[in-house]
Amino acid sequence: MNEPEVTLCEEVFVHGDATARALAKLPGDDLLIDLAELYKIFGDSTRIKILYLLYAEEMCVCDIAASLNMTVSAISHQLRILKGAKLVKFRKDGKSAFYSLADEHVTSILAQGMEHITE
To answer: Is 3 helix (H, G, I), strand (E, B) or coil?
Structure first.
């Protein structure tokens, strides 16, 4: 992928008022680290596939594993990460554990991400 060229300023001048306004809105380091960690979770294609399956349908671990041609153990590992990040939730029904997206925020993140890359 070719990176776009960056246009630089022709002179070095810091616009203090704009800088101050932007810095006033900058969250603290702890929040930014948490946000970066959340986005790292989206950096794995297997986890994205799992999230997209769950975007369409609540599914049990066995169904997810079969859909992705992976082992139940491998899917369980990824679901543990997604659950730890509060991106998925589960419910027990007899001997089955059914997973779904945790809330509308996750649905929105997936939808907006797809919209952005397909523009």
So the answer is: coil
Quick check: 90 and 97 in contact, CB under 8 A? yes
pTM over 0.90: no
At residue 53, does pLDDT exceed 90?
A: yes
Euclidean distance between the first and final Cα of the chain, in Å? Answer: 17
Q: Is 56 helix (H, G, I), strand (E, B) or coil?
A: helix
- 8 Å CB contact between 60 and 88: no
Residue 102 is encoded by which pair of tokens?
């945790």
Domains assigned to the chain = 28-118 (1.10.10.10)
78 three-class SS = helix
